[in-house]
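Re: your question from the hallway

Yes, I did run it. Sequences:
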Amino acid sequence: MWEQVSQALNQSVTRVATRVATLLPGFIALVLALLIAVIAAWAIGFILRRSLRSFDFDGKVSAWDLPGVRAESGRSPTDIVVRVVSWVVIIMGLLVGINAFEATLTSQLVTQLFAYLPNVLAAGLVLIIGAIAARFFSRSVLIGAVNLNVQYAHLLSVGLKWLILVLAGAMALNHLEIGGKIVDEAFAILFGGIVLTLALAVGLGARDLVSRSLERQASRMPEDTAETLRHF
Amino acid sequence: MPETGSLPQEINEQIGAVGTADVVIGLPGLQSLEDLAWAPQIAGSGQRVLIAYPNSVQHLDSSQLAGPQFLQYEASAAGAPASFFGTFQEIFQISQHVGAKCCCVWNTSPQRLSSDVLDRMLAPALSQGFDLVFPRYADMKFSALINKSIIYPAVRALYGTRISYSMAVDLCFSAQLVERLMQLDPKTRRPRSQQWIAAEAISGGAAICEVNLPMDPPRPPESLDVSSILSMVLGRLFLELERNSTLWQRSNNAPPIPAFGDATRIEEEDVAVDVQRMIETFQLGYRNLRDIWNLALPPATLLDLKKMATLSPAAFQLPDDLWVRIVYDFAMAHRQRAINREHLLRAMTPLYLAWVASHTLELKDASPAGVQSNQERLALAYEKQKPYLLSRWRWPDRFNP
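Structure:
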């Protein structure tokens, strides 16, 4: 009886030890891969930062006058590039480490992750561009409307900003293949709803207000500052 | 005769036929033959005159106009800013190729020209050794307001040169200055003629003078609104501050430059100006653009603007010192690229309209002497506040709005 118990225990310990022994190299490989990736990311980042600074990358990007790269993110263009590259290297190291387990499941996971990665990158890019464009165009509309003395300038600006953000969000979800047709339909309903609401609001609710506003603008036009004041 | 390599073959042939000329008059804005009624008279001055005009105009039958010679040149396509600030490059090329002693470029409408005006403009460059002749238009109480509020006093305070209309585009040049302006700027790799001529002349130590002209300042194109004009003008002024920072940081106040002819004044009709609308635009700007102004202006200035936004139209006033600090702060924000430059410059429009409203209320019933003293007071405020800009320029990190 005791022999059988002892044998069962021995077999169990052996199985666990074998399992741990099987997993341990993979785990050590994961830690090593991550460590090497972090060191490689740091080294690549260091070299990249020095190279970018040596040919005045920040100055060149500033000269292109991209819509507020520094102002929107609070970081210099060099910092942004270095961070992105460093994180890509670390994530690659992590994926290599996970693959070292040699388990079918992890292998499949890594394969699927790699296959899905372009979608994530494209969605991220769409979101970033959407956020920058929303900020840029809403600011343009706000400044232009204020300079034209349009009282609802802020409303116009916020409306445009959210319109662009919703559009970018829907495009990103489409790239991620999340939601399928629901996203398209929801976006069409939302977009159509906004336009219909605005049309009804202006057409029914604010018809008199709009006509009075237009009349006031028109009556001001001819004798405004143009003839009496000359700015340049 | 100088080489004619960089011009198209057809123009080279025309220049070959012309030979040489003493004076080149460039008319980039010429529209029709009727605008050249003064041309025969200019030829009587004893100088060999060549009038150059762009090929967008129908070819002129010069036999109808005795006297000067004519040359049609290929005009490069210019965008809005380039056409607003005038085009000089092609006229300078022609002037160099015919070996002219003096070159006059009249970018605004040639209908405003007369032989008398041309004689006045050409004389200092031809016979008195000046390199650059600026026009000084007749003074009007409510005209050239961007010039009065920003350009003239800023150039006077920063560059130490009192040019009444330093962004004028109707100018006369000596051959020496034309040669300098044809060179490439090593910093920007663009011909100097495509940059701000006044700043180029000041930095190059050119002899500058003004000529009083009995005409009002030229009107900007109708397609441009205040915001666009302000953005273009301030953009050029601020860019040049960046480019010439070593020059203006060292320059001191200088006496007025020589001026020829008698100053003229045009009295405007007594028409009420809609100050209320400008104040409303400022108040709307204060409510909506504070986030953008926050990036350029310090808290103390924003507090002053907050107080101004609550003033009634009768009590509305923008003090000179506050206005000057606003201009200098925007120059710094432009340099630091706090936000997109176009946005920054356009966001200044409500503040500029506040200055216009304040200026209009103050000078509504002022005499010409009162107007003059008002301008002098503003110019002195720019000079007084120059150390503020200097300290911000040299130690930008000490200031974080």
